[in-house]
């Protein structure tokens, strides 16, 4: 397999900026980075590692926008330089994703993995620490930065009163997925949104049992699973009266596959590798219908 020996990044107190929303973002980014190392060599690597890299790009873009808003409102003198660094870091992670899409083997190298390992951590330790003095405790700037949230882009997902369309803290989610790495990726995205109630089912049988035990608002389910596949799971869930919004994720994407999923009763369909942004859009629109 040729997987490089790379240690996971440990979240430590010295990575703390001292602004809870920023520290929470950094933790999500660190866990996505760690998933890069976990998913190298996965049996469905294109779907898992591809989804992690996509999500890393999405979340990086969002986090940088939030951090720049924070610095802007706080009047931080280093804003222009910090923005330039962010642009550079974004271009680097986008380049790695592109490289993976063109030649998956190319991201297995120790060099790439070590690069990614320090890619963000060095930025937090160096340049993010530099804006602390200007921003920690600045409630106005922190409030403005809080308004830049991952679940809405430039305010367009906002209702009139400025509240997000979905109150993620109250959404119950069931994930029916047999790939352990994919379970963790989905969990990271859900947690980053503030979802607290997440149930994991490793196959269709467990999924049906979970549906009977609690009533989820949203079900994310894989298509290809051992024994009972996703289509069968959805058909049985609907036959059993489940009203949950169901999003199916699959490595296949032709129209026939989509049509079969819709006929079985799914609300939306996502092609693997997923993107965090694509997942968010699908979940938001399913839940607000
Ligand atoms: Fe930064
Ligand atoms: Fe940051």
Write structural notes for this entry.
- The protein has 289 residues and is an alpha/beta fold.
- The protein has two domains: 13-146, Four Helix Bundle (Hemerythrin (Met), subunit A) (Up-down Bundle), CATH 1.20.120.50; 168-287, Response regulator (Rossmann fold, 3-Layer(aba) Sandwich), CATH 3.40.50.
- It has helices at 20-39, 45-74, 79-102, 110-135, 139-146, 180-193, 204-213, 230-239, 255-264, 276-287; strands at residues 172-176, 197-201, 218-222, 245-250, 268-271.
- Strands 2-1-3-4-5 form a five-stranded parallel sheet, with helices on both faces.
- The longest helix is centred in the first third of the chain and has 30 residues, at 45-74.
- It starts with 19 loop residues before the first helix and ends with a helix.
- Bound molecules: fe (ii) ion (2 copies).
- The site of one fe (ii) ion (FE2) has 6 residues, from helix 3 and helix 4.
- One fe (ii) ion is lined by residues 67, 82, 86, 123, 127-128.
Q: What's the short version?
A:
The protein is α/β, with parallel strands linked by helices and 289 residues long. The chain has helices at 20-39, 45-74, 79-102, 110-135, 139-146, 180-193, 204-213, 230-239, 255-264, 276-287, and strands spanning 172-176, 197-201, 218-222, 245-250, 268-271.
């Amino acid at each position: 397999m040729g997987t490089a020996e790379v240690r996971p990044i440990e979240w430590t107190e010295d990575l703390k900026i001292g602004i809870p929303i920023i520290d929470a973002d950094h933790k999500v980014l660190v866990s996505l980075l760690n998933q890069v190392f976990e998913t190298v060599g996965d049996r469905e690597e294109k779907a898992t590692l591809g989804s992690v890299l996509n999500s890393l790009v999405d979340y990086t873009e969002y986090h940088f926008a939030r951090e720049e808003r924070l610095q802007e409102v706080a009047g931080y003198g280093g804003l222009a330089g910090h923005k330039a660094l962010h642009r550079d870091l974004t271009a680097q992670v986008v380049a790695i994703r592109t490289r993976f899409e063109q030649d998956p083997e190319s991201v297995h190298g120790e060099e790439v993995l070590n690069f990614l390992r320090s890619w963000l951590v060095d930025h937090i330790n160096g340049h993010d620490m530099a804006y602390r003095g200007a921003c920690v405790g600045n409630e106005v700037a922190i409030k403005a930065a809080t308004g830049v949230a991952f679940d809405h882009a430039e305010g367009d997902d906002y209702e009139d009163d400025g509240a997000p369309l979905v109150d993620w803290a109250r959404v119950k989610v069931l994930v029916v997925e047999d790939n352990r790495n994919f379970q963790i990726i989905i969990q990271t995205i859900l947690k980053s949104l503030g979802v607290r109630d997440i149930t994991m089912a490793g196959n269709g049988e467990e999924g049906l049992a979970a549906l009977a035990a609690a009533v989820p608002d949203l079900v994310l389910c894989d298509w290809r699973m051992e024994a009972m596949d996703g289509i069968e799971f959805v058909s049985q869930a609907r036959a059993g009266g489940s009203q949950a919004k169901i999003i199916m994720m699959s490595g296949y994407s032709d129209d026939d596959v989509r049509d079969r999923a819709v006929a079985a009763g799914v609300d939306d369909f996502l092609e693997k590798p997923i993107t965090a942004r694509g997942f968010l859009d699908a979940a938001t629109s399913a839940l607000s219908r």
